[in-house]
Design brief:
2 domains; TPR-like_helical_dom_sf; Tetratricopeptide repeat protein; 129 residues
Length: 129
Protein backbone atom coordinates (compact mmCIF):
# COMPACT_ATOMS: atom_id res chain seq x y z
CA UNK A 1 0.00 0.00 0.00
CA UNK A 2 2.70 2.48 0.91
CA UNK A 3 4.61 1.73 -2.27
CA UNK A 4 1.59 2.53 -4.40
CA UNK A 5 0.99 5.77 -2.50
CA UNK A 6 4.65 6.65 -2.93
CA UNK A 7 4.57 5.89 -6.64
CA UNK A 8 1.45 8.01 -7.08
CA UNK A 9 3.26 10.88 -5.35
CA UNK A 10 6.29 10.41 -7.58
CA UNK A 11 4.05 10.29 -10.66
CA UNK A 12 2.31 13.53 -9.63
CA UNK A 13 5.62 15.18 -8.89
CA UNK A 14 7.02 14.06 -12.23
CA UNK A 15 3.90 15.34 -14.02
CA UNK A 16 4.22 18.67 -12.18
CA UNK A 17 7.85 18.91 -13.33
CA UNK A 18 6.79 18.12 -16.90
CA UNK A 19 4.03 20.71 -16.72
CA UNK A 20 6.49 23.31 -15.45
CA UNK A 21 8.80 22.49 -18.34
CA UNK A 22 5.93 22.81 -20.83
CA UNK A 23 4.88 26.14 -19.30
CA UNK A 24 8.40 27.55 -19.27
CA UNK A 25 8.93 26.33 -22.85
CA UNK A 26 5.97 28.37 -24.07
CA UNK A 27 3.29 25.65 -24.13
CA UNK A 28 0.74 26.74 -21.52
CA UNK A 29 -2.01 24.63 -23.09
CA UNK A 30 0.13 21.51 -22.79
CA UNK A 31 0.99 22.47 -19.22
CA UNK A 32 -2.67 22.92 -18.30
CA UNK A 33 -3.54 19.47 -19.62
CA UNK A 34 -0.86 17.95 -17.38
CA UNK A 35 -1.86 20.03 -14.35
CA UNK A 36 -5.61 19.36 -14.43
CA UNK A 37 -5.37 15.75 -13.15
CA UNK A 38 -2.86 16.84 -10.52
CA UNK A 39 -5.20 19.48 -9.11
CA UNK A 40 -7.97 16.88 -9.02
CA UNK A 41 -5.72 14.62 -6.93
CA UNK A 42 -4.28 17.48 -4.85
CA UNK A 43 -6.98 20.19 -4.66
CA UNK A 44 -5.28 22.07 -1.81
CA UNK A 45 -1.88 22.29 -3.50
CA UNK A 46 -1.50 26.03 -4.05
CA UNK A 47 1.66 25.75 -6.17
CA UNK A 48 -0.11 23.49 -8.66
CA UNK A 49 -3.23 25.68 -8.65
CA UNK A 50 -1.16 28.81 -9.25
CA UNK A 51 0.71 27.27 -12.17
CA UNK A 52 -2.58 25.99 -13.59
CA UNK A 53 -4.08 29.49 -13.31
CA UNK A 54 -1.07 30.97 -15.09
CA UNK A 55 -1.25 28.30 -17.80
CA UNK A 56 -4.94 29.07 -18.33
CA UNK A 57 -4.21 32.81 -18.44
CA UNK A 58 -1.38 32.38 -20.93
CA UNK A 59 -3.53 30.17 -23.16
CA UNK A 60 -6.46 32.65 -23.02
CA UNK A 61 -8.70 30.32 -21.02
CA UNK A 62 -9.77 33.27 -18.92
CA UNK A 63 -12.83 31.79 -17.19
CA UNK A 64 -10.78 28.80 -16.09
CA UNK A 65 -7.96 31.08 -14.89
CA UNK A 66 -10.47 33.16 -12.96
CA UNK A 67 -11.87 30.07 -11.26
CA UNK A 68 -8.43 28.89 -10.13
CA UNK A 69 -7.43 32.35 -8.92
CA UNK A 70 -10.62 32.82 -6.94
CA UNK A 71 -9.96 29.46 -5.25
CA UNK A 72 -6.45 30.65 -4.34
CA UNK A 73 -7.80 33.90 -2.90
CA UNK A 74 -10.50 32.06 -0.97
CA UNK A 75 -7.79 29.86 0.55
CA UNK A 76 -5.49 32.83 1.28
CA UNK A 77 -6.99 36.34 0.95
CA UNK A 78 -3.53 37.85 1.50
CA UNK A 79 -2.08 36.27 -1.66
CA UNK A 80 -1.08 39.45 -3.49
CA UNK A 81 0.06 37.56 -6.58
CA UNK A 82 -3.31 35.79 -6.95
CA UNK A 83 -5.09 39.14 -6.64
CA UNK A 84 -2.80 40.64 -9.27
CA UNK A 85 -3.24 37.80 -11.75
CA UNK A 86 -7.01 37.75 -11.12
CA UNK A 87 -7.07 41.49 -11.83
CA UNK A 88 -5.05 40.94 -15.01
CA UNK A 89 -7.39 38.12 -16.03
CA UNK A 90 -10.45 40.31 -15.55
CA UNK A 91 -8.70 43.17 -17.36
CA UNK A 92 -7.87 40.91 -20.29
CA UNK A 93 -11.52 39.85 -20.37
CA UNK A 94 -12.56 43.52 -20.60
CA UNK A 95 -14.01 43.53 -17.07
CA UNK A 96 -12.13 46.62 -15.90
CA UNK A 97 -14.42 47.60 -13.02
CA UNK A 98 -14.06 44.12 -11.53
CA UNK A 99 -10.31 44.07 -12.15
CA UNK A 100 -9.43 47.35 -10.47
CA UNK A 101 -10.10 46.37 -6.82
CA UNK A 102 -7.94 43.26 -7.15
CA UNK A 103 -5.15 45.18 -8.86
CA UNK A 104 -5.25 47.94 -6.23
CA UNK A 105 -5.25 45.41 -3.41
CA UNK A 106 -2.22 43.61 -4.86
CA UNK A 107 -0.38 46.92 -5.28
CA UNK A 108 -1.21 47.90 -1.70
CA UNK A 109 0.03 44.57 -0.35
CA UNK A 110 3.31 44.56 -2.27
CA UNK A 111 5.21 47.29 -4.04
CA UNK A 112 5.97 46.02 -7.52
CA UNK A 113 6.26 47.97 -10.76
CA UNK A 114 4.05 45.50 -12.67
CA UNK A 115 1.34 45.84 -10.04
CA UNK A 116 1.36 49.63 -10.19
CA UNK A 117 1.48 49.65 -14.00
CA UNK A 118 -1.61 47.43 -14.13
CA UNK A 119 -3.50 49.73 -11.74
CA UNK A 120 -2.65 52.79 -13.85
CA UNK A 121 -3.55 51.04 -17.11
CA UNK A 122 -7.00 49.98 -15.84
CA UNK A 123 -7.62 53.38 -14.25
CA UNK A 124 -6.94 54.95 -17.64
CA UNK A 125 -9.39 52.55 -19.31
CA UNK A 126 -11.99 53.58 -16.76
CA UNK A 127 -11.15 57.31 -17.09
CA UNK A 128 -9.96 57.63 -13.49
CA UNK A 129 -7.03 59.83 -12.49
Amino acid sequence: MLASVGSVFVDLLEEYRRATFFFESGDPLGASKLLEPIIEAEPHNTAVRQLLARAYFNSAQLKRAESQLRALIEHDPSDHYAHHVLGRTLERDGRFREALPHLRLAAAMKQHADYEDAVHRVEEWLGKP
